[in-house]
Every structure is written in C-alpha cells, then in structure tokens.
Automatic annotation (TrEMBL):
Domain Acetyl-coenzyme A synthetase N-terminal: from-to ranges: 5-58
Species, as recorded: Aquibaculum arenosum
UniProt record similarity statement: Belongs to the ATP-dependent AMP-binding enzyme family.
Alphabetical list of SUPFAM superfamilies matching this protein: Acetyl-CoA synthetase-like
Database matches in PROSITE patterns: AMP_BINDING
Protein name: Propionyl-CoA synthetase
Domain called AMP-dependent synthetase/ligase: residue spans: 62-443
Superkingdom of the organism of origin: Bacteria
Length: 632
C-alpha cells in the first residue's frame, strides 16, 4: 500500500480518530463531546458539543503564536494600480474594528449579514468580522443582478448589508450601489442598515436612515472580541444554482469547516504556514470563500486577493507577474482562465519574462479540465498541474492528487482519487454499483467528511430530496462519470440542468424563468453548448405567443437584455433564437439533452418517447444560424 492509500483507508476506517487528530491544530473554547454525531442520521454532524470561533483561529491565534508581523493578505489590483499588504496583526485589528461597528449596529450570534462587494480587502475583513461575532455571512457575487440579490435577501433575511459603491471589471466600472438599492426595493425583507464602502473610482448616494458611510462607521469603533459559537452553528450561507430559479443556500458549519480546510492546505495543496498561496477566483464563489479567505488564514499562510483578470489587465502575463512579484508557491484557478491565456499567448512567451522559480504547482477546478489545456499548462510552466474536483456543497475537494501526502501519477482528464474522508461510488439508476470504467451517477457514501454542508438554509426537505433521497445512504453529487480500475475518478457531465460557464455554475432553469417573463414568449428552453473558451455558453430557444407579429430580432434583443437585468452579466447570455416549437416527449418534457447533443455535434438517438422527431431538424437549422456546432 502506498502512503496515500494508507491515509485514505484510515480516514474511512476510523473517521473519528482521523478528524479528531486534525482538530487538534485549532484552538477550541470547549472541546467537542462527539467527533461524529450520527444521532440524526442521515443528517450527520461533526464536533457536536464543541465551541470555537473561526476568526480567532484565522487571525488572533496566529498573532498570539508569533505570526503577527507575517503578511496575511496581499491585495493586488492591476485595475486600480494598487498593491497593499496586511500583516496578521493589522488584519486582526481591522477586522476587530469592523466587527465593533457591526456589533454597535446590533449584529450578534446567528444574525445574517449579506456582503455584496468587489474584490477588495474590506470584503475579506467583512467576512471575518461576521465570523468574529458569530454572525452568519452570505456573500453574493458581484456579477449577479438586483433580482438575484433580492432573492437572497428574502431567503436569509439579513439584519445588515455590507456593500460598496462600485466594482471594476477590466476597464469597466460597475456601479454596485444602484443594484443594491433596487434589490432592497424589490425584496420583501428590509435590512435595518447598510454600510457602504465608497471607492474613489465611483461614488454613490446614501439613503438617509438606512445607509452609512463604511469608513465613518468604522473609524474609532471599539474593537470587538471573538465570540465562540457551537461547532455546529453556521459560519456562512452561500447560494448556488439549483435546477430551479430559487437558489440553494448552502450552509457551512463552523467546526467541521475550521478543521477540514487547514488539513487540506497541508495534505492536498502541500502548503506550509508562512508560504504564499494564491487562488485566482472571486470571494463570491466557494473557491474564494475556502481558498482566498478561510483555508490560507486558518493555516497561517499568506493569501493573495487579486482584483483583475487573467487577460487584459494588462495582458496574458498578469498571472506570471503576480506569481513572481509575491513569491506565490501554488496557484489555484479555473481551466477557463488558462484557455484565455493560451488564446492570447499560445507559445507562453510572456511566462519567460518572469521569475517563477518559487512556483511549485498549479491546481485547476471549477469545471472539467480538458486534457489539452492541462498538457499545455504543464509543458509551459514545468510544474505539476493538478485537476481537482469539488462543489459549493462540499466546500473543499472531493477528488484530488494530494500533493502533501503522496504525488500520484497524473491521468489527464481525471482529478485523480477520492480524497481522504470521501468514499466515492458510481451507481446505476437502480442504485447498484457499476463496474470500473462504466458511467453512472457519482455518489459519496455517508457520512461525508467535516466541512461539507450539513443542510440547506431553511430547506431541510429540499436538502434531503435533492441530495439524499435518490440513493439512500449516499450523497448524490449531481455529476456523472466513472471510476477506472485504479480508482481514478472521471467527472464527465452534470446529471441535471446545471451548466458551467467560465467556471461559474448556472441554472438553465433560472435563465428560462427570466425569459418566460417576456410578454411575447409563450415557451422557452435554455441549453449549455460547448464553447472553446468558457467551456459552455447558454443558448435560448423562444417560442412566441400565437399572433405575435413583432420582429423576431427585437424580441431576441429584449430577451437577452432581460436575462442580464434579472440574473446578471455573469450568465453570459448572448445567444437566443425564435423557433416555432420545442422538441418534447409525448408527456411534454422538453428534450434539452438531445438539443445539446445537436449543438455539440454529438451523435444522438431521438428518444422513443419523442412527440414529433421532425422538430429536431428545425432545431438543427436554428442552431446553425447561431453558429453551432462551433468549428474547433
Ligand atoms: N461584477 C460585475 N460584473 C462581473 C463580475 C463582477 N464581479 N464578474 C464578471 N462580471 C461580468 C463580466 O464583466 C462579463 O460582462 P460582459 O458580458 O459585459 O463582458 C460577464 O460578467 C461575464 O463574466 P466572465 O464569465 O468572467 O467573462 P469575462 O469575459 O469577463 O472573462 C475569463 C472570461 C475566462 C477571463 C474569466 O471568466 C475568468 O478569469 N475565469 C476564471 C476564474 C474564475 O473566476 N473562476 C471561477 C471559479 S474558480
Ligand atoms: P461549483 O459548485 O460552482 O463549484 O460547481 C461545481 C460543479 O462544477 C461540479 O458539480 C462539477 O460539475 C463541476 N466541476 C468542478 N470541478 C470540476 C472538475 N475538476 N472536473 C469536472 N467538473 C468539475
């Protein structure tokens, strides 16, 4: 047995011993009564009875242990020409001060706080300040529009909102405050107050009685201490796309998360405290929560907060500049970022202009990593390129090449093996395990390891129904794929209507709901088609109301605008067409999977239950007018 096999086997044989040992790395106000509590199975809880504060463990603990002068956070913003560094002591003081301001406004244990902010240090401070008080933050990605923000405000009912005047997207300044105003107007729940961080690039107006200037509110506020909460109390809620337009509030519990993340820093990413780790994502996504903010800080490493893009800020050498300038040892990003870089610098000439001698490994996740991109990155960077697989629900990797335990051989197209704590199986529709190399639903045997979500916010039934009911005893990942004879996982596709656009997870159902609000649209369908840069792009098919005689192009333009206004630019919805009818089964189910296969030029057999096969020909023609299938 190799080292990895041994560690993995032990994690499944003795999960309590395994994770209790990892929990020793943290400071607990009160130790747990039970490591793994199965009294409410299949709802398992970790470290019940324990009391802990995540902010204390991410900041104060390190200051007390002598890391106060070590850099905790590097803010690198090519879009504002700024590089700023915060030591652990500085970050702790700023967070304590902000927490003091929140406390003065009545925020305490269990209160929700929505954070709708760009990639600036204050956003990280906001998350940690909530954690300090035992409040539950919910960060909403800046690329979501007012309507999506309103849904989240209504679902988690925040006492307070933290926001900023604007974000900066490449050359474009995006006003955030008008979106927040509109969202609060639309939402039924009204937060008591909003603290607004006013950026010099674009100011905003403040609504008297509700909004306050962030800096004025914070300056001189007495610092707040950390408040220990139950290990099973929520640290945050992060909304992610489901199959409907109602997003799912993934709940992250405090203790399991605090234990799992620093463990993953050492064992998966092979990072030592004090080293510089960079996750080029956005704090609005789970990757940003876990690997820009919590994991590096809980581990005592230095994290990089990058407000820029892989290309265009200013060029395709931006990543190499950041790695060299800050001594980054490991970069974590999405394959799409590398496809964007490769498109602009196919020979990797900009890489040679920077000193990457300290750079050790590249980790990719967020979407399936095509072997071509992986091999290109490996060839140009001459470091291990590690594909790893995870989800908002799991909070940290399900499958990876655990570089801190034992580097296993890379198989392009596979995120390697289930990580310790995960017992992965592949099941057929009847719930029977399939043979190696046979595609099926990828599931994780319960209990899942600590740090994974215990439930959905205010939706225990939806949690059970979505994730636990199809295969009793297992967590349904929603991904299909196979395990090969060596136990390597191959993640091939989603089993639901979720698509992946530039590493961002989107619900075609949510886009359809937005399109359906157009007065001339009788029916619609959205599918994700293959895109050589972003992995997938959404394409919409609109059936108009009988008798509608308005020009089709006008309606298409309005429909595209509608999605941008209701969901946001992140949906990247730019392609739609009018069709006479949608292909359906006789029972009325729209054949989205068949439509996608036509768009991607895959072979397909029309299902036997199809109502009228001739419609598929019409869809093919409609796709051709939109430029699909794409020529590779
Ligand atoms: N606030 C406001 N708008 C935002 C935003 C934010 N935080 N983030 C993205 N947007 C906008 C973009 O400006 C773009 O608008 P446009 O249609 O007017 O051009 C739209 O949302 C789509 O954004 P994106 O999908 O990011 O496309 P892009 O063309 O701007 O950049 C990549 C493409 C590949 C460079 C970029 O997606 C990328 O770096 N992705 C990989 C890293 C990553 O973040 N992965 C996520 C999980 S690990
Ligand atoms: P998110 O919740 O936004 O992180 O998206 C999770 C989904 O992205 C997964 O369910 C997969 O469909 C996909 N995904 C993430 N990482 C990978 C990977 N390494 N390989 C294949 N698919 C991935």
């Amino acid at each position: 047995m190799g080292e990895f096999d041994e560690v993995h086997a032990r994690s499944l044989r003795d999960p309590e011993g395994f994770w209790a040992e990892a929990a020793e790395a943290l400071e607990w106000e009160k130790r747990w009564d039970r490591v793994l509590d199965d009294s409410d199975a299949p709802h398992y809880r970790w470290f019940t009875g324990g009391r802990i504060n995540t902010c204390h463990n991410a900041l104060d603990r390190h200051v007390a242990a002598g890391r106060g002068e070590q850099c905790a956070l590097i803010y690198d913003s090519p879009v504002t020409n700024t590089v700023a560094r915060f030591t652990y002591r500085e970050l702790r003081d700023r967070v304590a001060e902000l927490a003091g301001a929140l406390k003065a406004r009545g925020v305490g244990v269990g209160d929700r706080v929505i954070i709708y902010m760009p990639m600036i240090p204050e956003t990280v401070m906001a998350m940690l300040a909530c954690a300090r008080l035992g409040a539950v933050h919910s960060v909403v990605f800046g690329g979501f529009a007012a309507h999506e923000l309103a849904k989240r405000i209504d679902d988690c009912a925040p006492k307070l909102v933290l926001s900023a005047s604007c974000g900066i997207e490449g050359e474009r300044v995006v006003a955030y405050k008008p979106l927040l105003d509109r969202a609060i107007e639309e939402a039924r729940h009204k937060p008591e107050s909003c603290l607004i961080f006013r950026r010099p690039q674009q100011d905003c107006s403040l609504q008297p009685g509700r909004d306050e200037d962030w800096m004025e509110a914070v300056s001189g506020s007495p610092p707040a201490d950390c408040v220990a909460i139950a290990a099973t109390d929520p640290l945050y809620i992060l909304y992610t796309s489901g199959t409907t337009g109602q997003p799912k509030g993934i709940v992250r519990d405090t203790g399991g998360h605090a234990v799992a993340l620093p463990w993953s820093m050492k064992n998966i990413y092979n990072i030592e405290p004090g080293e510089v780790y960079w996750s080029a994502s956005d704090v609005g996504w789970v990757v940003g929560h876990s690997y820009i903010v919590y994991a590096p800080l809980l581990h005592g490493a230095t994290t990089v907060l990058y407000e820029g893009k892989p290309v265009g800020t200013p060029d395709a050498g931006a990543f190499w500049r950041v790695i060299a300038q800050h001594g980054v040892v490991t970069l974590f990003t999405a394959p799409t970022a590398f496809r964007a870089i490769r498109q602009q610098d196919p020979r990797g000439e900009l890489i040679a202009k920077h000193d990457l001698s300290r750079f050790r490994a590249l980790f990719l996740a967020g979407e399936r990593c095509d072997p071509d991109t992986l091999l290109w990155a490996q060839d140009k960077l001459q470091v291990p390129v590690i594909d790893h697989w995870w989800q908002t629900e799991t909070g940290w990797p399900i499958a990876a090449n655990c570089m801190g335990i034992e580097a296993l051989p890379v198989k392009p197209g596979s995120p390697t093996r289930a990580v310790p704590g995960w017992d992965l199986r592949v099941l057929d529709p009847e719930g029977k395990e399939v043979a190696a190399n046979t595609i099926g639903a990828i599931v994780g045997k319960l209990p899942l390891p600590p740090g994974t979500f215990p439930t959905l916010w205010n939706a225990r039934e939806r949690f059970e129904q979505t994730y636990l009911s199809t295969y009793p005893g297992f967590y349904q990942t929603g991904d299909a794929g196979y395990l090969d004879e060596d136990g390597y996982v191959f993640v091939m596709a989603r089993t639901d209507d979720i698509i992946n656009v530039a590493g961002h997870r989107l619900s075609t159902g949510a886009i359809e709901e937005a399109l359906a609000t157009h007065p001339d649209v009788a029916e619609c369908a959205v599918i994700g088609v293959h895109d050589s840069l972003k992995g997938q792009l959404p394409v919409g098919f609109l059936v108009l109301n009988a008798g509608c005689d308005r020009p089709e192009e006008e309606i298409v333009t309005e429909a595209i605008k509608l999605v941008r206004e209701q969901i946001g630019p992140v949906a990247a919805f730019k392609s739609a067409t009018v069709v006479q009818r949608l292909p359906k089964t006789r029972s009325g189910k729209i054949l989205r999977a068949t439509m996608r296969k036509i768009a991607d030029a895959e072979t397909y057999t029309p299902p036997a239950t199809i109502d009228d096969p001739a419609i598929l020909g019409e869809i093919e023609v409609a796709l051709q007018t939109l430029g699909y299938p794409q020529k590779s």
